[in-house]
Write a structure and sequence with these properties.
The chain has 191 residues and is mostly helical. It contains nine helices and two strands. β1 (73-75) and β2 (79-81) form a beta hairpin. The longest helix is centred in the first third of the chain and has 18 residues, at 2-19.
């Protein structure tokens, strides 16, 4: 009975964190789909559509990738979420600990959240920074999240395709990552 109550409490806490994303509007140039909650749901949908096998870490990385946005919302010249990926990584780590993920699982989920905005900078990265970025552990999981993030918002896969055609990204079997067959809609670099 205690275990059942604990599991229910954990679910409620996780749902509460997700519900904070409801009605948090985003800049329409990058997120024509609307608020953070809708975007997150679309990312999860796109993740399940586009790649058949996703680890639990990738799914939770997608679930939490923008969880820092409600805490970093700022409207100046446009809506901004400065450093939401770092705030989100801290929140994701706390949730993963509450949900009793292993240290390895937690590290990957936190990395997916913390690193997801770097894709928007790849064209301006120095060669050494780019090499370091594409060499991070489980980079293909980061690619999966990036693709779903783009498809769940502006639809622009140009940065994904740039990485797809580079010599580095490969899945665990050494095969090329699938996925530049989707037409661009419009917009920028992910979110």
């Amino acid at each position: 009975r205690d275990l059942h109550l604990s599991i229910r409490r954990q679910r409620q806490m996780c749902i509460r964190d997700r519900l904070e994303m409801k009605n948090v509007q985003q800049p329409p140039d990058f997120h024509p789909e609307g608020d953070v909650f809708v975007h997150t749901c679309l990312v999860l949908d796109k993740l399940s559509e586009s790649i058949s096998e996703n680890s639990i870490e990738v799914v939770f990385g997608a679930l939490f990738h923008d969880i820092g946005k409600p805490d970093t919302y700022d409207k100046t010249d446009r809506i901004r979420f400065n450093r939401h990926e770092y705030v989100g990584a801290i929140k994701a780590e706390k949730i993963c600990k509450r949900l009793k993920f292993s240290n390895k699982q937690t590290e990957l989920i936190v990395s997916l959240v913390k690193e997801h905005m770097k894709f928007g900078n790849i064209k301006n990265m120095k060669k050494s920074t780019f090499k370091k970025f594409v060499s991070i552990e489980n980079f293909n999981d980061h690619l999966k999240l990036h693709k779903a993030d783009c498809l769940g918002s502006h639809g622009d896969l140009s940065l994904f395709c740039l990485l797809y055609t580079s010599p580095s990204p490969r899945d665990q079997r050494g095969a090329r990552m699938p996925g530049c067959g989707v037409k661009k809609k419009r917009g920028g670099g992910g979110g």
